[in-house]
Amino acid sequence: MLVKKYSGELVPFDETALRRSLLRSGASEETVNQVYTAIQNRLYDGISTKELYELAFDSLKSKRSSYAARYSLKRALRELGPEGFYFEKWVARLFQEDGYNSMTGQTIQGHAVTHEIDVIAQKNEELLAVECKFRNDADAKISVTTPMYFKSRVTDIMDLTFRFFNKELKFTDGWLVTNAYFTSDSVKFGTHYHMNLLSWDYPAGNSLKNKVDNNGEYPITCLTTISDQDKAMLLKNQCILVKDLLRDDALCERIQITKEKKVAVIQEAKELINSPLEHE
Question: Which of 104, 44, 93 is nearest to 240 (CA)?
Answer without folding.
Answer: 93
